[in-house]
Amino acid sequence: MAAPDDHPLQGHVGMGAVAVLSLVIHDVATATTHIVEPEPHENWSCPVAVLRDGEWRLYPTREARDADRPDRTLTLP
User: Fold this and answer.
1) pLDDT tens-digit map of 18-57
2) Closest Cα partner for 47 from 24, 18, 76, 27?
3) What angle do CA 19, 39, 16 make, to 5 degrees?
């Protein structure tokens, strides 16, 4: 889903307009939905969330996921 319009990197990276996206995580085990917004320095152009060992690993792109370089990890209730 779209990140906030006032995100500092929204539409201002490089020569073209860039969409910075938020993540929607729906946990079917707990029937809960969480919206995670990028921090001001995070440029999530194609974000990916991976659940590993009880922690969500949040990656800005598929390439970052493939290289296992998450922007952050978090534990959701």
Assistant:
1) 677 788 988 888 898 999 989 888 888 889 999 999 899 9
2) 24
3) 25
